[in-house]
Structures are given as C-alpha cells and as structure tokens.
Amino acid sequence: MTDVFSPEKRSAVMRRVKGRDTAPEIAVRRMLRAAGIGYRLGGRGLPGKPDIVMHGRRTVAFVHGCFWHGHDCPRGSRKPKANAGYWTAKLTRNVARDRQVVDGLTNDGWRVVTVWECELKSPGAAANLVARVTGQAATVSAGSASEASPAST
C-alpha cells in the first residue's frame, strides 16, 4: 500500500510528532496539580528519563502513547500495513526498552506508574491516577496491574 501523503507532506507530519509536552502528558500534570501533588519534569539522570518525577514519594510516572509503546487496547494493537517489518521491529524494541527501564528504576528503589493514553479518557481517570501515585493502588481495581510493567496491560 502506498502512502497517502507525498514524501514532503509525510516528512512535515512526522516532524510534528512530539516527544514532550504532549496532550496526554499535560492532562496528567493537570490532574496531579489539582490533587496538590508536586512533581518535576524530565527525570534526567534516571533510567529512561521519566516524564514526571516525584522525589519525595520516590515515584516516577511515564505517560505512554498506546501505539508507540504497544498497549493492548484497540489503538495500541493496530499494526501499520505500510513498511510492516520496520514498525513491528520498532514497536517490539520500544516494549523491551520500557520493560528494562521499569526494572532498572524498581531495582533502584523507585515506584513506577505507567499512565496509558487510553486510560485518560475513562471516567475517574484523575482519581485512579492520584490513588496510584499516592501508593493507594490496592484500593483501585483497574490501576494496579499497569504499574508493574508497561507491556502488562
């Protein structure tokens, strides 16, 4: 299947794909601020450069796009038809890297919260996020499994 865009237009589209300050990341920041939870951005010096770092809680948060990080929701399980071999390998590497980063942070004593793009659309997303960040995830039914590994949900 050929691309629907010309090479110049495809290049322009791909240039606009952001790695920081994405809409889901900003939504998570707003939820944390509304709950009075302080954080820092960037996580330089930590494995994987977490999106959000809460030093006092020894907690980091990754805000993952479902497609880019291989979530098992409808958007994350989509497989591109064009250049399928490249995309399959890339997404597999992303999931493996995420797993290594979570293991490294956990071994260093950090609690890792993975927030998926699709989770933010559900009602109660803010309460679920706050419960997971504050360490009360056991009382939240849907959130506890996604803390363990980015590929587990």
Brief synopsis:
This protein has five helices and four strands, in the order ααβββαβαα. It has about 150 residues and is α+β, with helices and mostly antiparallel strands.
Shape type:
globular
Strand content: 5-15%
Q: If helices are DSSP runs of H or I spanning 4 or more residues, what is the number of helices?
A: 5
Report the order of strands and helices: HHEEEHEHH
Question: What about the largest sheet?
Answer: 4 strands, mixed
Structural class: alpha+beta
- Output the radius of gyration: 16 Å
**Quaternary structure of the protein:** single chain
For the record, give the distance between the C-alpha atoms at the N and C termini, rounded to a whole number.
31 Å
Stretches where pLDDT falls below 50 for ≥5 residues? 138-153
The level of helicity is: 25-40%
Number of strands: 4
Strand order of the largest sheet: 1-2-3-4
Mean pLDDT: 84
Provide a descriptive summary of the structure in words.
By secondary structure, this protein is of the alpha+beta class. Helix content is 38%, strand content 11%. It has 5 helices and 4 strands, in the order ααβββαβαα. The protein has a 4-stranded mixed beta sheet, sandwiched between helices. The longest helix has 24 residues, at 84-107. It is globular, with a radius of gyration of 16 Å. It starts with 6 loop residues before the first helix and ends in a 5-residue tail after the last helix.
